[in-house]
Amino acid sequence: MSVSKLFTKQLFPTLLGMVSSALFTVVDGIFVGRGIGSDAIAAVNIAAPIFMIAAGLGLMFGMGGGILASINLSRGKLVVANINVTQSIVMLTIVSIIMGILLTVFPETVVTLLGAEGHLTELSAEYLFWFSISIPSTVLLVALPFFVRLTNPNFAMWAMLAATVVNILLDYIFIFIFEWGLFGAAIATDLGELVGTLLLLGYLLRPSVSVRFAKLKMSIKSIRLTLRNMLKLGVSSCLSEITIAVMAIAGNYVFMSHLGTDGVAAYSIVCYLFPIIFMVFNAMVQSAQPIVSYNYGCGQLLRSNKALRLCIISAVVFALLISGVFVCFSGDIVSLFLPDRTSHAWQYAVAGLPLFAVDYIFFGINVITIGYYTSIERINLAMRLTLLRGILPVLFFFVLPAWLGVTGIWLAVAAGDITTTILIVLCRKKV
């Protein structure tokens, strides 16, 4: 099959599945903002970096295990590929259970470290506590689609859509009918993620599926080797989520110091919308990843490079379209979350959303290029670029406001991604 046809076949179900996953966050933001208020939406944004770190773990084990399984499949090693899948999920489950326990024991300490102050501390801690009980489902819902897409991308899409629909319905019931507040928002997310996770696990347990769970190889040597290769291949994806989390933390601190709680509430609108942007680009990466990894394993590098070009063209077109929407309809978009158009938070967000949208085209190029380098096992370069695009925006968060005021805060992430894109172009010229 031609690369373009194969990429398109992978892209649309993957895109729908990933966007539906991002809608978890967006729908929570809309219901929390309209049903509870701007303080609640700011409180959720304080805890948001934890969700990003959890998603990073899922990406690390999912993408790392998926690449490893793809390469073994290209070499006719189906049994080894199934062992890769099983070891990935088992190890991720153990790590996520430990993480969930720690977060439920120390929620107030965690949100204080993330920048919560005053009454936001209690609200953030409440949301984080109830969300943390489903951390295993959260990370598995991110990781499992990587393995299901190897044989059935459509099923992965429908499982993600089912999880999102459950979350939306329960959000409405728990927040507007039962009036459970942040507790209801967290529980709705927990149950939605559980539904999606159970569907995906059930698929991988089917004996008729070629890529599925296998008898776990328990030798220390096998587990250590798989874990090392898996983490090596997936660590840049994890770092990408962690860098977004760090940017969210830095943004919260800077907005709190310049504009107070209303500034954090305004910034939270961007943080709620950003996962959709990231998931679209991530869907492009994941659609190209099996093509790139498989052809890399077979030595067909021209096909791998063509998949990269298709990804970048798709990313640029999408970034231009979504940036135009955010510039033209910023007021309507912010009103989905904050209906009071006279509030300071609404005004800050409407002014800042078009400025932040400058970042999207450069962010997309960076995410896709880093994903490509990961898929062809150029791990060190992918990690360096990931760390760079995480560190630079944080530096600009503290430097640009001294020159440009609040406008500099909104442009900080774009400045970091533009710098990273320039370095990526220079690296490509040297390859």
Count of alpha/pi helices: 15
Question: Which spans of ≥5 residues are poorly predicted at pLDDT below 50?
Answer: none
Supply Rg: 21 Å
Estimate the helix proportion, in percent: over 70%
- Helix-strand makeup class: mainly alpha
Total strands: the figure is: 0
Brief account:
By secondary structure, the chain is an all-alpha fold. It has helices at 3-35, 38-74, 78-105, 107-113, 119-132, 135-148, 153-177, 181-204, 220-298, 301-328, 330-337, 344-356, 360-375, 379-404, 406-430.
How would you describe what is shown here?
The chain has 431 residues and is an all-alpha fold. 87% of the residues lie in helices and 0% in strands. Helix 9 crosses helix 12 (344-356), helix 10 (301-328) runs antiparallel to helix 13 and helix 12 packs parallel to helix 15. The protein is globular.
Give structural attributes.
431 residues, mainly alpha, 87% helix, 0% strand
Topology:
Blueprint: H1 3-35, H2 38-74, H3 78-105, H4 107-113, H5 119-132, H6 135-148, H7 153-177, H8 181-204, H9 220-298, H10 301-328, H11 330-337, H12 344-356, H13 360-375, H14 379-404, H15 406-430
